[in-house]
Every structure is written in structure tokens, then in C-alpha cells.
Design goal:
The protein has 122 residues and is mostly beta strands. Helices cover 0% and strands 52% of the residues.
């Protein structure tokens, strides 16, 4: 069983920045961020496999950056130029299988964190 512990997030005004972290109990092949806003379906945000090759969903391209520190088994999401529509609960996810992507149709990720709230006010 892989444990994922998230930290960071919070509340910020539009245009601001926040950072999320996700510490995993082991170094696992694929780690990703998802988000879910109230009344909406869960949406994939970004994914990165253990050696790099980040993948992003279109809505956050150029604003969010995913990264990993494999020495710490930790995944990060740097969020800049935040918009009110970025408000959601953000979840870290991990899986040992390919492909490492959050694109629709990918098999569900096996391991999930507890979630961190990100609120962007206008």
C-alpha cells in the first residue's frame, strides 16, 4: 500500500500563486494531480513519471508546473496566475502502471491522497 500525504494549498486572490506537495511512502512510477470543484466531475491536472516527461491538461498550460524530487519521494504542483475557476479540492494520485497521463480514458490511479483545498477569490 502506498501512502500519499499532501500539504500546501490554501486561499489566494486571483493572479496569485500557491504550491502543493505530495509525499509518497515509496518512489512510484507515475504521480499526478487531480482536482474536483463542487458539483463538477474530477479533472486531471498534470502527471509526471519518475524520470520526467510532465503532461498537463490544457486549461492550466503555462500557469501550473508539476515536478518531482525523487530523493524525497515528493511531487509538487506550482500554481501561478491562479483564477477563480481553479478553486477546487486538489488530490495527489499515484500508480505503477503506464501510461503516465491524466488524459481521459486512462485507467484509474490506484493510490490517492486525502486532498487539499485551493480557493481563489476574485
Amino acid at each position: 500500500q502506498v501512502q500519499l500525504v499532501e500539504s500546501g494549498g490554501g486561499s489566494v486572490q486571483a493572479g496569485g500563486s500557491l504550491r502543493l506537495s505530495c509525499a509518497a511512502s515509496i518512489n512510484i512510477y507515475c504521480m499526478a494531480w487531480f482536482r474536483q470543484a463542487p458539483g463538477k466531475e474530477r479533472e486531471g491536472v498534470a502527471a509526471q513519471y519518475i524520470l520526467g516527461d510532465p503532461r498537463y491538461t490544457d486549461s492550466i498550460l503555462g500557469r501550473f508546473t508539476i515536478s518531482r524530487d525523487n530523493s524525497k519521494n515528493t511531487l509538487y504542483l506550482e500554481m501561478n496566475s491562479l483564477k477563480p475557476e481553479d478553486t477546487a479540492m486538489y488530490y495527489c494520485a499515484a500508480d505503477g502502471s503506464i501510461p503516465c497521463t491524466v488524459a481521459p480514458g486512462r485507467a484509474p490511479f490506484r493510490y490517492w491522497g486525502q486532498g487539499r483545498q485551493v480557493t481563489v477569490t476574485s
